[in-house]
Amino acid sequence: METQVKVDLTSFRLETRKWLEENCPKSMQEPVTDANQLYWGGSNGKFSSKDQEIWFNKMLDKKWIVPYWESKYGGGGLNPKQNNILNQEMSRLGCRKPHINFGISMLGPALLKFASEEQKIYYLNQICKGEIRWVQGYSEPNAGSDLANLQTKAEDKGDHFLVTGSKVWTSYGDKGDFIFCLVRTSTESKHTGISFLLIDMNSEGVSTRPIKLISGKSPFAETFFDSVKVPKKNLVGTLNDGWTIAKYLLTHERQMIGGIGDTDKKKTLSEVAIDSIGVTDKLLSNSSIRSKIANLEMNEKIFELTIQRALDEHKAGNNSGAVSSFFKYYGTELAMQKEELRLEVNGFNSTEWTSEESNNGREARYFNRSKGHSIEGGTHEVQLNIIAKRVLGLPSK
Amino acid sequence: MALVINEEQNMLKSSAKELLDLKSPISHMRELRDDNYNQFDIDLWKEMVEMGWTALTIPEEYNGLNFGYVGLGQVLEEMGRKLTVSPMISTVLVSTTLISFSKNEVLKRKLFDEIMNGKKLCSLAHEESSHHNPNVNLSIISKNDEKFILNGKKRFVIDGSISDYLIVSANNESSGKLELIILDSKSKGITFNNKVHMDSKNYSDISFNNVEFSNNDFLSSNDDGQKLLSKTLDISCVGLAAEMLGNIQQAFEMTMQYLKEREQFGVKIGSFQSLQHRSAIMFGEIELCKSIVLKALQAIDSDDQNLPELASLAKSKLGLTSKLVTNEAVQMHGGIGMTDDSDIGFFLKRTRVTQRTFGDSNYHLDRVAKINNY
Known about the structure:
The complex is a heterodimer.
Chain A: H1 2-23, H2 50-61, H3 80-93, H4 102-114, H5 117-128, E1 134-137, E2 153-156, E3 160-171, E4 178-184, E5 194-200, E6 206-211, E7 220-231, E8 235-236, H6 242-258, H7 269-277, E9 279-280, E10 283-284, H8 287-315, H9 324-346, H10 362-370, H11 380-391
Parallel strand pairs in A: 1-4
Antiparallel strand pairs in A: 2-3, 3-7, 4-5, 5-8, 6-7, 9-10
Helix pairs in contact in A: 1-3, 4-5, 4-6, 6-9, 7-9, 8-9, 9-10, 9-11
Chain B: H1 7-23, H2 26-34, H3 42-50, H4 69-82, H5 88-101, H6 105-116, E1 122-125, E2 140-144, E3 147-158, E4 165-172, E5 178-184, E6 190-196, E7 202-213, H7 225-261, E8 263-264, E9 267-268, H8 273-301, H9 307-333, H10 344-356, H11 361-371
Parallel strand pairs in B: 1-4, 2-4
Antiparallel strand pairs in B: 2-3, 3-7, 4-5, 6-7, 8-9
């Protein structure tokens, strides 16, 4: 049995490798430097190149947009080992993801766990075809770290909900087709009066306004709901129990943000520093920067080992103790320290904002953008609160 | 290899904890200290030998258990939790490792036999200045007719005052290469200056003045001395990091307990957010330490070529984190933490010494950078 499984996996690997080599266009094997270079799909989705379109369609035919979901939901039906092999082979060749969408990374897992079978079949199949660009509606002007304080109201009007209020920090909110939203359906209790609703952004009464960040870019928007009618069937899970779904989904978001890291995987920071600062007697010429880099690279390597250990312990049936809050906190902390250090390494070049040489201030803008890592998806302080209370069991009074 | 310990290693860890809970609680370390800095409890050592701890890393062909360094690491970690006083570091972690790389089969068999049975203790004498620096060696071996003669000074020899043998690194005058020799510590010409350090343990400064020895006392052969020493030091760093991991987990748990008990302003001090956040950060740092220590221990057993880098990562990370955790442990204990009656200060004092042993985090981060060519 065991040997047969191994043989099957080996042939799967070889077939996958061959298929990828034959079907992934060369330009789709170049590393991306910005999430906007990927295809986000949706009704307004535009391919940035012919190769991008070819690559998306090839993977779509193969059902590999979401390779690990069951085929009845539009996925490729791969088991975890096969999916792992596909990932390995894609990164071996440097294949770009054919499509990214919050529907895959965030909403999908929540639907799989909490939605009705009918909802799963309807929405997951659309996600697997990249037809809908999903955005998230969680935070509000007065509900940031204190998320459960949200006030956007959904009133029961018999066959539909009437939604009024506003959401802020909606990622790419001005570009979305559908928004998954936390809304208040009862005021009796803070946490148990929240529901999880899917809202068509083309509905009457929905409007958006982009938010310009210190990086000069606008990856977020404000979204306004002015008496928007939402059909009852768009409610996911139980009425007033949306907080359970929200918490589950936030765990996925934390893992995703915690995984933010290298924007430039081609060169390590020490390699960049060798080019920009130079070496004297084989050592980086500035010993102060050298020790800061060594310290950062030490923590990066050990953090990767810690992610691996958590996965291995999970497989072995143990709980490693390291929780998603820790990964979110530490992963973003390292990413931010790295952006800060990158400025020291690159000197004057690093603060250029509009020049051609700096690729329109790519590095400077990344640095500014990175300041949000410790705020979005639950601030550093919120993550530390969670660890202190849930893991360490420290008292609240 | 999966980054988890297996069932056998876990059983060894539990049995180590059981023995140490019973025979070597922290109070035992205090008793030995108060007994004029006693370094050696022979009854405890016999128990350790009985448990097979001295044979853990010795290959089967020498009648050892061949259990590996992940196993030894579990024992050292548990000892770190109890601040156990024993020759496990000097004799088992360091000396046995070095002997295992030697090609001097006669000597190897004899020494393994004596160490496994708990009859002899052994220390490595390699440091010569105030900082770890294995590349500088002023001790000299010269030849006089058929006799070899050692002259030099060594510092910071762990358990030097109780060891039966000293393994000494010195340059061969004729070849200029580093050699490793083993001497009876009572040999003529050896003078000890035994010093108690901050952790209440004994470290010796030793002078070698025309000490005679023979051809049979060489552990190195064919110019492999430097290689033997650096491999031994890498492994010793990892083993010590495992002990430090035990130190900081214990200090952290004692501190969390204190935060849940101590009341000020009518509430438990653990409810204060300033302490909660610092505690959560320590928790994360300790999780990182667990990962690198296990990875480095596994690298020893699998003969991983990345061991030098992993060893330096482990030693530097544990050096830095042990500083953070023991400082916070004393601070969070407040005035109590400053008293000798409290055990928490012992962890501060032990880690201040182990941070330096086999190189501090400055040394090892510098080495990591060099390994990565910058």
